[in-house]
Design a protein that fits this description.
CATH architecture of the largest domain: 3-Layer(aba) Sandwich
Protein name: RsmF rRNA methyltransferase first C-terminal domain-containing protein
GO molecular function: methyltransferase activity
InterPro entries: Methyltr_RsmF_N (IPR031341), MeTrfase_RsmB-F_NOP2_cat (IPR049560), MeTrfase_RsmB-F_NOP2_dom (IPR001678), Nol1_Nop2_Fmu_2 (IPR027391), Nop2p (IPR011023), RCMT (IPR023267), RsmB/NOL1/NOP2-like_CS (IPR018314), RsmF_methylt_CI (IPR031340)
CATH class of the largest domain: Alpha Beta
GO biological process, one term: methylation
Shape: globular
CATH superfamily of the largest domain: Vaccinia Virus protein VP39
Distance between the termini: 34 Å
Radius of gyration: 23 Å
Bound molecules: S-adenosylmethionine
Helix content: 25-40%
Number of domains: 3
Number of helices: 13
Largest sheet: 10 strands, mixed
Keywords: Cytoplasm, Methyltransferase, RNA-binding, S-adenosyl-L-methionine, Transferase
Oligomer: single chain
Number of strands: 23
Strand content: 15-25%
Length: about 450
């Protein structure tokens, strides 16, 4: 691997006698990790069920190293069922640090493709409000897909420049994650293209953007709330340097100790002439642990006046026909009315939305809430998101396949399957974990697995 010369020089100055050990990691393969999605399965049960060779990651209870030469978990049907998320082990540390709780209001400001959003959602146990914002339209597609696959019901997906959110959400969030866009020095091994884009200048402009994002986020946090700032770069300018600039003009914020930091090295404010308080932040180094590398800081906003409360906004209303076809679908398909609303309709798509949410008028909204499905003129087509968020006990008709069943792969390819089941929407599951919808009629299970997710097994 040919590292940029200026980068190597910079790291030699910083790391001194550790430089050889650090540089030798570029001769090694990236570490591979997956994180069990506790919205669907516990880590203990996953250890029994998943056919992979897994070793626990010390800083994340749901995290495991896997052997890339032996196993390909990203291609397994349990991945399509959302039982886990493939994630760099060190990238699991920012959410462990932020540690959100059920019922809180949480903002993930730079969210795509959703590794940390799905981790936040699991910690929130499906309760509270999770706002996932991602400025790139292209990257939001992967974010939405990952949220759906993981069965996340309490997320709203926005596509805004952070500064456009500030006034809308002043003092609204209990916790904020800024997993900032960065020069990606910790990605060189996994994604060599990051290396092509790297220059001293790119680290400077990344630092300015990071400060802008922090400035936009600060007013959105409640007094007493916590904010995690993380990057996957080693550059002090983008880590301790940016935070020092931010803290210099925000006395209402102070760094707090990162929990579980015994696995990590302390940050290096001395490398950036930054405040000593930043020794409480941490660095994850690829030559010190199995992971690509990360920087993580936890900041707390001083408790005090709550500030102006945001008035709840109004969502576009739902007309009678849409409600009626949805109610009919619920009565015919679900064992209880699990999603009582409030609802909104975007086009003919029905969403369950959080109560008391600030107005979204004028914002780029990809998902105003939990996507239930499409209300057509005389019937309701349930969404893939709904299928993946249910349990078999909540549905009247279920067909379950063994993970190796050939019929399951035909379903994933988009084929209809013979069926002697009762007529109607049917939840298709693998080992009782939902994977999509089918609809039984005329002795066939018609295939409703989304076209864009179908497996090409040719
Ligand atoms: C490090 S990545 C986020 C990774 C994500 N948190 C995860 O764990 O899957 C940073 C994200 O910030 C987004 N971004 C780029 N410019 C931005 C800006 N000006 N404001 C906010 N986000 C930006 C990028 O598109 C990118 O998706």
């Amino acid at each position: 691997m040919r590292l940029p010369e200026d980068y190597v020089k910079q790291m030699e100055i910083l790391l001194k006698e550790e430089i050889d050990s650090f540089l030798s990691t570029y001769q090694e393969e990236p570490s591979r990790g997956l994180r069990i999605n506790s919205l669907k399965i516990s880590a203990d049960e996953a250890m029994d069920r998943l056919p992979f060779d897994l070793t626990p990651i010390p800083w994340c209870k749901e995290g495991f190293f896997y052997d890339h030469h032996r196993d390909r978990p990203g291609k397994h049907v349990f991945h399509a069922a959302g039982l886990y998320y493939i994630q760099d082990p060190s990238a699991m540390s920012p959410v462990e640090t932020l540690d959100p709780r059920p019922e809180e209001r949480v903002l993930d400001l730079c969210a795509a493709p959703g590794g940390k959003t799905t981790q936040l959602a699991a910690k929130m146990e499906g309760r509270g409000v999770l706002v996932a914002n991602e400025i790139s339209r292209e990257r939001r597609k992967a974010l939405v897909e990952n949220l759906e696959r993981c069965g996340v019901k309490n997320a709203i997906v926005l596509g805004e420049h952070p500064a456009h959110l500030t006034a809308r959400f002043t003092g609204w969030f209990d916790r904020i994650l800024i997993d900032a866009p960065c020069s990606g020095e910790g990605m060189f091994r996994k994604d060599p293209e990051t290396m092509e884009r790297w220059s001293i200048r790119s680290t400077e402009s990344a630092a300015d953007l990071q400060l802008e994002i922090l400035e936009a986020a600060a007013p959105m946090l409640k007094p007493g709330g916590r904010l995690t700032y993380s990057t996957c770069t080693f550059n002090p300018r983008e880590n301790e340097g940016v935070l020092d600039r931010f803290l210099g003009s925000h006395p209402e914020f102070h760094p707090v100790e990162v929990p579980g930091s015994t696995h990590f090295r302390a940050a290096r404010p001395d490398w950036a002439g930054a405040t000593e308080a930043l020794y409480k932040a941490v660095r994850l180094w690829p030559h010190c642990l199995r992971g690509e590398g990360h920087f993580v800081a936890l900041l707390e906003k001083t408790a005090g006046e709550e500030g102006t409360r945001q008035k709840p906004g109004k969502f576009p209303p739902v007309h009678g026909d849409a409600k009626q076809v949805y109610r009919q679908f619920v009565a015919e398909t679900l064992s209880t009315d699990l999603f009582p609303g409030p609802f909104t309709l975007y086009g003919d798509h029905l969403y369950q939305v959080p109560a008391d949410f600030p107005s979204m008028r004028g914002l780029v909204v990809d998902r105003p809430g939990f996507h239930l499905g499409q209300a057509k003129r005389n019937h309701f087509a349930p969404s893939h998101a709904l299928a993946l968020a249910l349990t078999p006990e909540q549905v009247k008709r279920v067909v379950s396949f063994h993970p190796d069943d050939e019929a399951l792969f035909r379903y994933l390819r988009g084929e209809a399957l013979p069926s002697d089941g009762d007529k109607g929407w049917t939840l298709v599951t693998v080992d009782r974990f939902p994977i999509g919808w089918g609809k039984v009629s005329g002795g066939l299970l018609k295939n409703h697995y989304p076209k864009w997710l179908r497996w090409d097994l040719a």
